[in-house]
Amino acid sequence: MLSRSTYIRRREAILEADRPSSGLLLLLGNESAAMNYRANPYPFRQDSTFLYYFGLDGPAVDGLIDLDSGEAQLYGDDPDLEDVIWMGERAPLRERAARAGVETTAPRSALSTDLATAIEAGRPIHFLPPYRDRQARRLEKLTGITADRTADYASIPFIQTVVQHRSVKSTEEIDQIETAVETTARLHRAAMRRAAPGRTEREVAGALSGIAESHGRGLSFRPTCSIRGEILHNHDYSRTMEDGDLLLVDAGATSPEHYAGDITRVVPVGGQFTTRQRVLYEAVLAAQTAAIEAVAPGVPFREVHLEACRVLTEHLMELGLMTGSVEAAVEAGAHALFFPHGLGHMMGLDVHDMENLGEERVGYADDQTRSEQFGLHTLRLARPLRTGFVVTVEPGCYFIPTLIERWRAEGRHDAFIDYEAVARYEGVGGIRIEDDVLVTNEGGQILGPDLPKRPDAVEDRAGSAS
Ligand SMILES: [Mn+2]
């Protein structure tokens, strides 16, 4: 846990915020989730917003904040004898609550009675949209709203307050993210050393998971670790690496307090990039460098994304894969054949921070609308950046056979794309370069230790032992 005063301060900030104005804020903690039977659960992961305001990292505890009295209360049960026998001793709730600065506790069963009393008195109950079925069913039980419709009744002012708080990272949080990124860099050094002809993707993926467990709280998401890097969220590790392949690893570790890291690197399996791989790698790196340079408070991330698109397009035009005016090509969305995803996302307690609260509520300002254009429509973060935001910057360049075939058959954007030249690059797969960037008054600051990124440094990866 972070310090007691941190949680007190965070809850006080809710009371100081001008919305929601009255009633009760209900923060459901997560419960243990069965994998295939109850005694064999998935690793427990606490709800991030619950962690943010209450810090208690165990299943079956819920929080309530009374906006009118300013009091916070935690509901949960103390371990019984069976729990102690199977799971070990655990401090009683009263003691755990005190570590988060909460003085009032009650058995978990009291939550439904307390909420029923409040509802009867006409007091509003504010809750966040559920992302697990179990939460929706509990909300149904507690509020009387049908489980399927609970998301429709989630409190928008509550969501807005949480987004406002969690978007700007404190020094304490930045330290946690730095720790997560340090471990994440270890994962990548290990992957770089292990990429070799004849080895399997699975050997590398297994090492990532082991290192993340040994140095922190495990992985922050299921990694992509594949020679088919053009499959954007590829979770298959069944292939054997060969000379000439590029291994794309997109992986992140979690800090002791559950903050995430998220980095992507690409390594030539045989040790050297081919000429084609190298020029494309340089193009992606130029796009990433330009994007990080464009990061500054007040700059909409959408502009940073478009800057990366323009630099990538410029390079693709120099290589003959694209033709015409850079501005016009990007405006039309032609570059999305090669770069069909958004430049990045917020990162914090969640790797896609607060995505459960709604991508647009987190990533878009009120006066911004999400584009419907192919490629740009997947941009998760568009809003003007602020000091203290932590974002990922992750441009890529991919050769996705099905997408290329579809566009070629339609003649889509053929004023900007030379499909014959594109055909010569087929089989390159995918290249993405990702770092975690803190927005400071001086601009974007890459978090974590130096991790090989220049093509020569990546090729020289054997010397990067950690
Ligand atoms: Mn990412």
Topology, number of strands: 15
| Radius of gyration from the alpha-carbon trace, in angstroms | 24 Å
In round numbers, the mean pLDDT is: 96
What is the general shape?
A: globular
By CATH, the architecture of the largest domain is named: Alpha-Beta Complex
Structure description:
The chain is of the alpha+beta class and 466 residues long. It has 2 domains: 4-167, Creatinase/prolidase N-terminal domain (Creatine Amidinohydrolase, Chain A, domain 1); 171-461, Creatinase/methionine aminopeptidase superfamily (Creatine Amidinohydrolase, Alpha-Beta Complex). The protein is built from 16 helices and 15 strands. The strands form 5 sheets. Strands 6-5-4-1-7 form a 5-stranded mixed sheet. Helix 8 (171-194) runs antiparallel to helix 9 (201-215), helix 10 runs antiparallel to helix 11 (301-318) and helix 11 (301-318) packs across helix 12 (326-332). 44% of the residues are buried. Manganese (II) ion (MN) is lined by residues 262, 345, 392, 394, 434.
Sum up the structure in keywords.
Creatine Amidinohydrolase, Chain A, domain 1; 5-stranded mixed β-sheet; 13% strand; binds manganese (II) ion; 2 domains; alpha+beta; 466 residues; Creatine Amidinohydrolase; 3-stranded antiparallel β-sheet; single chain
Q: How is this fold's topology laid out?
A:
Blueprint: H1 4-16, E1 24-28, E2 34-37, E3 40-41, H2 48-54, E4 61-66, E5 72-76, H3 81-87, H4 93-99, E6 104-106, H5 110-120, E7 125-126, H6 133-143, H7 156-167, H8 171-194, H9 201-215, E8 224-226, E9 246-251, E10 263-268, H10 275-294, H11 301-318, H12 326-332, H13 359-363, E11 390-393, E12 396-398, H14 401-410, H15 419-424, E13 430-432, E14 435-440, E15 443-446, H16 455-459
Parallel strand pairs: 1-7, 5-6
Antiparallel strand pairs: 1-4, 2-3, 4-5, 8-9, 9-10, 11-14, 12-13, 14-15
Helix pairs in contact: 8-9, 10-11, 11-12
Bound molecules: manganese (II) ion (MN).
Manganese (II) ion binds next to loops.
